[in-house]
Amino acid sequence: xxxxxxxxxxxxxxxxxxxxxxxxxxxxxxxxxxxxxxxxxxxxxxxxxxxxxxxxxxxxxxxxxxxxxxxxxxxxxxxxxxxxxxxxxxxxxxxxxxxxxxxxxxxxxxxxxxxxxxxxxxxxxxxxxxxxxxxxxxxxxxxxxxxxxxxxxxxxxxxxxxxxxxxxxxxxxxxxxxxxxxxxxxxxxxxxxxxxxxxxxxxxxxxxxxxxxxxxxxxxxxxxxxxxxxxxxxxxxxxxxxxxxxxxxxxxxxxxxxxxxxxxxxxxxxxxxxxxxxxxxxxxxxxxxxxxxxxxxxxxxxxxxxxxxxxxxxxxxxxxxxxxxxxxxxxxxxxxxxxxxxxxxxxxxxxxxxxxxxxxxxxxxxxxxxxxxxxxxxxxxxxxxxxxxxxxxxxxxxxxxxxxxxxxxxxxxxxxxxxxxxxxxxxxxxxxxxxxxxxxxxxxxxxxxxxxxxxxxxxxxxxxxxxxxxxxxxxxxxxxxxxx
Length: 484
Hints:
The structure is a single chain. The chain is mainly alpha-helical. The protein has one domain: Amino acid/polyamine transporter I, CATH 1.20.1740.10. The chain has helices at 2-5, 31-42, 45-59, 63-87, 94-101, 104-139, 170-185, 187-212, 236-247, 267-296, 307-314, 320-354, 373-389, 392-420, 435-449, 453-477, 479-483, and strands at 153-156, 160-163. Strands 1-2 form a two-stranded antiparallel sheet. α5 (94-101) packs parallel to α14 (392-420) and α14 packs antiparallel against α15 (435-449).
């Protein structure tokens, strides 16, 4: 039984999906599309919201250093994703990598954790989108009753889970439904939408940087590292590290590119370019934006949901109209994040189903659209319910934990495959193995240890549900087990 649980997919000189090109997903995505999708997944609530919060509460102007620290964590993981995506260019991302390197049961655990990450992340962003959408409605004098724009569940660290008095977050659910319709129509339509959203986001960030350059007050950068208050994590060097833990999640999303191997024209070359290219562009954008933001306005004023709007208002009334453009750009940015997360989840379901661990319907493609419509529908309904009923407080910590867990597994996968299959050609190779994967593992585990106990409990409950599904269905229907 133990041997069966750890049965691994065989390594071949070149990976080919079970379905041939005539029956597979249509390959539309090139490197530029994958970079765009990666940017679409990464740039969202992080740069528009978290930058201000991290500066105001933890790091001050040194939030720039927090971004640099967080980028190093992502670079280690990104290098490992790039090697595995070039070596194993099949759909499923970290799930498929784990199946090849560690076996079926670890792969199922990873796939189940990926599902939690994508669903919770997409739902969290949708809730944030709802807040900005309500703000724009107010700009036009329109109001949606708060009972239909907030989650009925609320969470407080002191009292736990409770009721907010609201009924449902309708705008968040509407966004998820619209996005799922797009990914059901086809990857090409989703890619065009993402390209448009990325162009809007990058243009807005560039506009903010160009205007902000002429309104920087160097006094706002003094002191660059505010003195620690006496509490760990509140400014000083410990605040920079605490801030890095917060802004780290502003980088989450580049790993989604690795799930799109079946949609890529040349996955062995284009996937590494998409992963590292999007990560590099976003890192530069984050650092420059953080410098401008803290240079225009004192960091003490940035602990708000819309720090960019605060900075624009400080530049003078003549820039007031740009605030509306920024809100529109934020809506665009958050929309593209939801799209990429849910798109990645449908591909994970598709990969798991092909292996027999989920019912075949999850892998079935529509005869005309050539997309997994059933997977898209299930993903959409689940995410709509999560976005409609739960607030960011409940979802955010789970996203953090699952992301660090997955990064750890991917780094471990590189290390294992270098030992078990050193002979295979790797179009992209992580340098300094085993040191870089080992450092990535240590850093991610250390970050996980800083998360509260309730977050570990959330992960444990989710894994228990996953174990029930695997031993109730997957282990009896596994294709690789039937072949043994």
